[in-house]
Amino acid sequence: QMTQSPSSLSASVGDTVTITCRAGQSIGTYLAWYQQKPGKAPKLLIYDASSLQSGVPSRFSGRGSGTDFTLTISGLQPEDFATYYCHQSQSTHTFGQGTKLEIK
Amino acid sequence: EVQLVESGGGLIQPGGSLRLSCAVSGFSVSSNYVSWVRQAPGKGLEWVSVIYKDGTTYYADSVKGRFTISRDISNNTVSLEMNILRAEDTALYYCAREVGISGNFDFWGQGTLVSVSS
Q1: What is the pLDDT of residues A5-25, one digit of tens each?
Q2: Dihedrals φ, ψ of A80, to 5°?
C-alpha cells in the first residue's frame, strides 16, 4: 500500500513543491516517481528513490528510504503542471493514488 | 529508438474475451521484462502483469486466473489474453519495459482502450 499526499496541489510558476509517498512497510529504495499529462503515458522521472532519469531536468529531485519518500520540484515551470505518481517495486508493483499539480 | 505499440483494444461485453498485443522495437523481449499497466478512466495506475526474460509470469490478484501474459520472441511482441472480462476491467492498457534490477518502468506505449459494457 502506497499512500501519496496531497491528492491535489495548487502552485505558481517558480514555486517549490513537495509531494510525499508513504509505504505500508519498508521498501528500501525501490521507489520511482512518474509524471503524467492528460492523454499521455506516464514518464519516469526518478528511480531508486533519488536517481534522476536521463533527460529529466535537475529541478526534479527525490529523497527517502524505508517507508517515507518525497518528490520535490524546485522552480516550477509551466510544463510541470501534471499528475505525479509514486511507484514501489519491492514487492510486485503498487502505485500511489496520484497528485494533481495545478496552476494557482 | 525504443518503441512499444499496443493494439487489440475495443468494446466487449461482460464475460467476453480480448487479446491485446504490444509490438516492441529497440529492445528484445527475450532479454527484458515487459509489464502491462492499466488506468481506468479518470483513475490512477494499476499494475496488471509481467513476463520476465526467463519467461516467468506474475499477475495482480484482480486478474489472476482470467488474464494470461505471453510473448512471441520471433516477432518481438508481448500479448495479454483477457478472459471473463468484467466492467471493472475497463481501462487504458499500457505495456511498459520494466528495468530488471530497479523494477521501474522506463519506456511506455501509448495505450489501448478496453471497454467492457453490455
Answers
A1: 999 999 999 999 999 999 999
A2: -85, -10
